[in-house]
Hints:
- The protein contains 11 helices and 4 strands.
- The chain has helices at 3-22, 26-29, 40-47, 54-63, 68-79, 84-93, 106-121, 129-141, 154-157, 182-189, 204-210, and strands at residues 161-165, 171-173, 176-180, 199-200.
Amino acid sequence: MNRDEVWQAIDHERSSLADLLDDLSDREWEVASLCSGWRVRDVAAHLTLAQMGVAQVARELLKARGDINRMLHDTAIRQAEIPLHEISALLRGMVGTRRKAPGGQPLLDILVHGQDLAIPLGRDRPMPVRAAAFSATRLWNLGWPFTMGWSFRARQELNGLELAATDCSWSVGHGQRVEGSIAAILLLLNGRMAALSSLSGPGMAELRVRLSPATQP
């Protein structure tokens, strides 16, 4: 995917997720997401902060004493206190812009967090195969400092396994095979336990031992 295609995919995902948020009941906003300790409203609010500038990020990191995971959590919780309809409006208002926070991965974030919201709610949210494959490759190849904020580091955690998509030509790693849709693999690369039910292969026993229930925003 070239730069224009990536941003087109981001715009589509933001717009469709805003539509989903508009349809949520008050109860659904409070449902626990796939991100441990984060409600649906917290994850949605986090996505509206994807365009923070350098100065704002620096201020928030200072408040969090340099802990990026604490910063992500605290900013999301504060943002989640705004009226619910404003969260979807803010997300929709980002469509068409190409701003991103320093070191941000907006396509990866919107794809994975869209599932973090939809899966616990029982909402069907198909993940575009090409965008998912692009994001899976990007995540697999990310190194420090771009992996700051990820508690699950895919290459280290999944070393010795081969991951292969069944709906496109995509594979990484060597060892016992784990296969499934590229959407499920992308969730796996982000440490989401929910991916396990959609994966199969001889490497599954080993994978279950390695994959922690903890996940990150």
